[in-house]
């Protein structure tokens, strides 16, 4: 059996270890900068952050030393059997899977931004978000257009009646 | 205790709490049956709704969802070969072959009856073990609490799926996220990076909804594989009670395994069902039939995963340590109502403690009746188009998170943690240790510093107290168990 770890996986491990080590340093410096309070007894507000920064640093070292953070998807290939998939194809497959969740996340971010900046009333933004997200996930067709429109209006109405009338929350 | 428990049943069976249990259980079953949606997501999403309710009503609703979601996953495990939740994973191995051979209704009914038995046994454990454990926990000081938190974190790290290193990393990052805001001992502002909104720290609900609901819903947006689907033609009872009772050894053993695994912090139904299934297979006379439609396999898996529910509530109400991920959200629900789970809850709010007990029992009975009577309709839930469900649930996440504090900052926090959850899933970092680290960090910090201040900084004081020393020994043993196992197996010929 040959352990065939993808180059992509190794780079991800290294990048994660680097991010963790940087985070540990930033955390230590931030904890060090916390001024002692008048109640300070030597175990102040920066004590646990410093302990955690040490733990993070150790874990980043363990990852760099070879404890994989991410199991390679095609780690084991039999001697006589299939070779691991080329990294390009793996990346393409990962992108095909991740594309729609990422698009939905961006759409969600735009929806929240529109409410936060008061560009739209929250109920209008919610209905629009559902309509567009429904089309994104179901694909554009006559049926999906009708269903998305109906669902977005009905759900928005139900959610807003529930929160504003039953729970008396003032929504933006 | 018996009197208080009976009085609690009286409270629970009033119209509103009972209706909320039924509603919660049905919602839980529905969500459990739809592949991709899970109980943690549902409970996190329902949390903002319960904010203005009486605490007992909130508990009834959430416990119903907890029981329902664990049980509902059986339906998709049997008919689609997709476990509705991770705890139904082992069920698929035997339920799907049974369904393929035209015995879908039998597989479902075996699973439903086993789930009920598992729930009842763990309920008995909850009622019998909680009061003495709470009395024992009353003797804990800061040393013992800090050591106990360490045991919880090490256990969840060692028992999570994947590598221990990743689980520990997840736990440390979870603790890190709990740090910004006011220091719990001196009220000193820290790690707020100049943002006034950060002074209050990250809202628990925003983090939970983000990590569990938003990340799961975003993940559900990915193109799904096409699965073989089996249609349920008949919902009539096909399992004789005498035949079912003949499996009593397997039922009892799996329920005990599930309950004990549930008690371990952060370890949910998935580990319980795997251990119970493996045990049933290794002890069975018909072990060759496992994986080919064995009734024993379905029974072991479903009994154990439901038994973890009652087991997981035990450490939560007696010590404030979550027994599973959903228990983290139940702790958040109690915190929202100004209640602190732990041994003092038995004295200060006994109605809440006994409310948990009685609502668990009632939810199990409701689950049994709903699933047995409505199995044919429940089987249709798998046809719900996710393209329209996911956006609707995301809107509920946004509105629900905003509604708790009327702050858009919380919505951004929720969104950010949704992406963090997605990233963790992509990197195969378990989310359980993250949320448990997040919820236990303030308890760990407060008790660590109280202990060190009281002992003038002597770390050895943790080893001078027998209970604390015992907990630290267990924590170290769990931490180094992979290393010890490796050494042991190398020494054996």
From TrEMBL, chain A:
Transmembrane segments: 12-31, 51-69, 101-117, 123-140, 145-163
All residue ranges annotated as the DUF1468 domain in the record: 15-172
Pfam families membership: TctB
Keywords, sorted A to Z: Membrane, Transmembrane, Transmembrane helix
Descriptive protein name: Tripartite tricarboxylate transporter TctB family protein
TrEMBL record, chain B:
Domain DUF112: 19-436
Keyword Isomerase (UniProt): no
Keywords from the named record: Membrane, Transmembrane, Transmembrane helix
Classification via Pfam families: TctA (PF01970)
Xref: InterPro entries: DUF112_TM
Parts of the chain that traverse the membrane: 12-34, 54-80, 107-130, 142-160, 193-215, 309-332, 352-375, 387-405, 411-427, 434-454, 466-488
Protein name: DUF112 domain-containing protein
Organism: Pelagibius litoralis
């Amino acid at each position: 059996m040959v352990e065939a770890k993808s180059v992509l996986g190794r780079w991800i491990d290294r990048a994660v270890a680097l991010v963790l080590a940087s985070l540990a340093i930033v955390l230590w410096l931030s904890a060090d900068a916390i001024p002692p309070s008048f109640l300070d007894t030597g175990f102040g507000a920066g004590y646990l952050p410093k302990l955690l920064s040490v733990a993070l640093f150790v874990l980043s070292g363990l990852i760099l030393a070879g404890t994989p953070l991410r199991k390679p998807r095609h780690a084991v290939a039999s001697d006589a059997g299939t070779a691991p998939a080329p990294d390009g194809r793996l990346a393409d497959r990962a992108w095909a899977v991740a594309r729609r969740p990422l698009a939905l996340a961006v759409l969600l971010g735009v929806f929240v931004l529109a409410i936060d900046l008061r560009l739209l009333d929250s109920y209008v933004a919610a209905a629009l978000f559902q309509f567009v997200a429904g089309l994104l996930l179901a694909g554009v067709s006559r049926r999906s257009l009708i269903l998305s429109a109906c669902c977005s209006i009905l759900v928005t109405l139900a959610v807003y009646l529930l929160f504003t009338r039953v729970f008396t929350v003032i929504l933006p | 205790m018996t009197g208080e428990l009976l009085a609690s049943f009286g409270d629970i069976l009033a119209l509103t709490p009972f209706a909320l249990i039924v509603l919660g259980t049905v919602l839980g079953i529905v969500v459990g049956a739809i592949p991709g949606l899970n109980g943690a997501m549902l409970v996190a999403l329902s949390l903002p709704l319960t904010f203005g309710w009486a605490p007992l009503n909130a508990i009834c609703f959430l416990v119903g969802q907890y029981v329902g979601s664990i049980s509902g996953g059986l339906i998709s495990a049997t008919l689609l070969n997709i476990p509705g939740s991770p705890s139904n994973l082992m069920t698929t191995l035997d339920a799907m072959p049974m369904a393929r051979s035209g015995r879908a209704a039998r597989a479902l009914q075996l699973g439903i009856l086993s789930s009920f038995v598992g729930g009842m046994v763990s309920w008995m454990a909850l009622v019998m073990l909680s009061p003495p454990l709470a009395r024992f926990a009353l003797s804990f000081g800061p040393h013992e609490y800090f050591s106990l938190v360490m045991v919880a974190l090490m256990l969840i790290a060692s028992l999570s799926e994947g590598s221990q290193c990743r689980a520990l990393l997840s736990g440390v990052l979870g603790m890190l996220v709990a740090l910004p805001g006011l220091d719990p001992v001196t009220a000193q502002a820290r790690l707020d990076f100049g943002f006034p909104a950060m002074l209050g720290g990250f809202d628990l609900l925003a983090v939970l909804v983000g990590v569990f609901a938003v990340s799961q819903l975003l993940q559900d947006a990915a193109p799904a594989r096409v699965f073989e689907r089996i249609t349920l033609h008949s919902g009539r009872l096909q399992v004789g009670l005498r035949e079912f009772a003949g499996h009593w050894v397997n039922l009892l053993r799996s329920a005990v395994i599930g309950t004990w695994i549930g008690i371990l912090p952060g370890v949910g139904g998935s580990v319980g069902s795997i251990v119970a299934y493996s045990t049933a297979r290794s002890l069975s006379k018909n072990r060759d039939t496992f994986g080919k439609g064995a009734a024993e396999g379905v029974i072991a898996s479903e009994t154990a995963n439901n038994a973890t529910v009652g087991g997981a509530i035990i450490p939560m109400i007696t010590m404030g340590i979550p027994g599973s991920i959903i228990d983290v959200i139940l702790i958040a629900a109690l915190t929202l109502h100004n209640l602190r789970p732990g041994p003092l809850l038995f004295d200060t709010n006994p109605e809440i403690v006994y409310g948990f007990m009685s609502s668990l029992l009632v939810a199990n009975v409701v689950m049994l009746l709903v699933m047995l009577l409505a199995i044919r309709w429940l089987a249709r839930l798998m046809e719900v188009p996710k393209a329209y469900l996911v956006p609707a649930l995301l809107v509920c996440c946004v509105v629900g998170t905003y509604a708790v504090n009327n702050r858009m900052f919380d919505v951004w926090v929720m969104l950010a943690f949704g992406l963090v959850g997605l990233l963790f899933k992509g990197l195969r970092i378990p989310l359980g240790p993250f949320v448990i680290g997040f919820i236990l960090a303030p308890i760990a910090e407060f008790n660590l510093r109280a202990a060190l201040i009281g002992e003038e900084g002597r770390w050895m004081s943790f080893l001078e107290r027998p209970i604390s020393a015992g907990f630290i020994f267990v924590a170290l043993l769990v931490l180094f168990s992979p290393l010890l196992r490796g050494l042991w197996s190398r020494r054996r010929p």
